[in-house]
Amino acid sequence: MPSDAHIEADRAAIAAALAGDRVTCDARVAAMSPSRLRSADDADRGSAVRVLAASARHAALALDAARVSELDDRIADARPAATEGAPDVAAELIGAWRALLSGAHALALDLATTCGARASERRQPDLVVDAASLAGLARLASGDVASGVKAARRASRMARTESIPLCEALAHLVLARARRASGHAHLALRITRALGALPVTSHGAWLAFEHALAGGSASSLARDELAAALHAWCDAAESGDRARFDDATRVLQARAASAPPFLRDDVDALVLACDPQRDPHGSPLESFLLGATSEIPPALHGIATTRGIASESAILYALQHRASAPRRVVRLGRALVLDGVPALQQSRRHQGRAETVIATLLLAGPRGLDEAECFRAVYGFEFVPEIHRGALDVALHRAREWLGGIAHLERQGSHVRLEAERGLVCPDPRAGRSLADKILAALAEDRGRSAKELAEAVGAPLRAAQAALAALVEDGACEARRAGRVLEYHLEDTTFSEPTYVR
Description:
InterPro entries: WH-like_DNA-bd_sf, WH_DNA-bd_sf. By secondary structure, the chain is mainly alpha-helical. The chain has 3 domains: 3-192, Tetratricopeptide repeat domain (Serine Threonine Protein Phosphatase 5, Tetratricopeptide repeat, Alpha Horseshoe); 227-431, no CATH class; 435-491, Arc Repressor Mutant, subunit A (Orthogonal Bundle). The chain is built from 23 helices and 9 strands. Strands 2-1-6 form a 3-stranded antiparallel β-sheet, with helices on one face. Strands 3-5-4 form a 3-stranded antiparallel β-sheet. Strand 1 (316-320) and strand 2 form a beta hairpin. Helix 2 (22-30) crosses helix 4 (42-61) and helix 5 (65-78) runs antiparallel to helix 6 (89-101). It is elongated and about 85 Å long. The two termini are 33 Å apart.
């Protein structure tokens, strides 16, 4: 085939890839013989490189690290000498993907940033969007959630403007991950549900897993083995059956073994936070699970705090077994706490001071705390005896009342400790969800609901729900729309708009 014919066929394959058609592009790659590249001129070789890169972009969306590496090697062999001083951006971007999928997040960020600048100079909008998306994903994988969210929002807006299906699939999926990591799993669910409208299938496995992580139910999105294993693992945790949970954990970790490091990290965090028998010392979650900090780690937003025992409203518990050191366990793992361990229910008090005192002292262990340390952990600011002693005395009194005879709160001078001989599990309100968060999560499940329906869904008084909804509407988090005689509330995301493609 003449060089011009090769290039024309390559262009058609690349256009198909950008429109979401992976099959046509992969077929073009499969038909690319080594003899063609050996005898090809620079224009022909450059065209071949762009086809290989387009195929690799689909493989990256599929999180197929082996395929990305294979195509990256082929790109290196096919790259024309004339591009050495001005490398093809699409090809360079595959190097960034290869780094990310191997766990080299800092390198991936550097490469993606460089590629984005070059693509902008050359006015290649699809590559600008992909580079921005990849940079956001690398930042999230590195633990820089704030910068990751900012980059993901920018990429999603650019993708929406350009309306290139392949770019939208990546950008919006990264935004969903960023939304969940920043504590807005309800927005992540809205995105993952909407992405089914895109004429792209390469991201199916990743999409199903992100949907599950955000707390989505098993559905048509959950056909992937990893997502299915995650749903089965959650079911096992909710059942409280230890043997079933251990089996499901082994299956989940086996499925995750071939996933990229950033997804394996999610699985490891979930297992550690849900399994009360695991020791968190030395893990990335150590400070949170041992009670030193109370900000929920990014990996635990979503499924870990939304699923669990239906009759329990808390999302986090302090736990002490008789034979092990105290630690926290998230809502999803509550049923795995041994039946013989005494349990406290969450009170109806808005601030939950009694439970906060008990959880704080329980996590402090047998040594207890100085009253100033206890006050700071419960109230969040420094203890001034002449001002705050009355408040502390009341909080400790209420904690004793709430404990009944399950455990004993001892106070000697300025020292406070909790003695729980039989062990204890207690809600820890310090990382609880606000009423507004519960309403937003309920709105993520339906397209529109009335204030009365939302109040019933979250178990709140109607007036409290109406006040929370008014604040959410004012902040732009949701929108009120008239539906006949009923005022319905709809979830809004100022960045993401649902794709309008039809397959």
